[in-house]
Amino acid sequence: MSLDLVVGYDGRGGGKAALEEGISLAEKMGGRLVLVFAYEPAARAGGEVGELRETLRLMGADLEIEAEARVKESGIDYELVLIDSRPAPGLVQVADERDARMIIVGGAGETPLAGALLGATPHKVLQLTDRPVLVVRSAS
Questions:
Q1: Neighbours of 134 (CB within 10 A)
Q2: Arithmetic mean of pLDDT, 114-139
Q3: Higher model confidence: residue 139 or residue 102?
Q4: Domains located in the chain, CATH noted
Q5: How far is residue 98's CA from residue 33's CA, in Å, rounded to a whole number?
Q6: I want to staple 7 with a disulfide (CB 3.0 to 4.6 A). Which of 17, 22, 41, 107 is the partner?
Q7: Backbone phi and psi for residue 63, each to the nearest 5 degrees, phi listed first
Q8: Which residues share a beta bridge with 105?
Q9: If pLDDT is split at 50, 70 and 90, which confidence band does 52 have?
Q10: C-alpha distances in angstroms, 92 versus 46, 95, 125?
Q11: Helix, strand, coil: what percent of the chain each, to 5?
């Protein structure tokens, strides 16, 4: 198992909290961060899915630049990954490809029942992997 820490980053409060925790753990463990933004539009999006996919990819590239600036401040090793996938399967795929030590995601503090019914990413990741998953609650 590698020392890679896969972090789901979407620019929102939970993603920012996951990034900060990932940086802290990587500094302590000497690991590398793999920042992942998954951008596949939901099946129910309809209409011009190709245009939506490209817009989401560009948004992800901008978010990764934002995250990269923060990671560079810390001086730790990192990799940026944009993946055309729904978030949970995308995070698990990247973690599997790198034999990652852990997946770190942000959570908004929803109840387990709400997460299960609404399909929150942390709950889906837990269902899709046997790897350790750290869910970091956002302050906002």
A1: 17
A2: 81
A3: 102
A4: 4-137 (3.40.50.620)
A5: 11
A6: 22
A7: -65, -35
A8: 135
A9: low
A10: 26, 5, 7
A11: 50, 20, 30
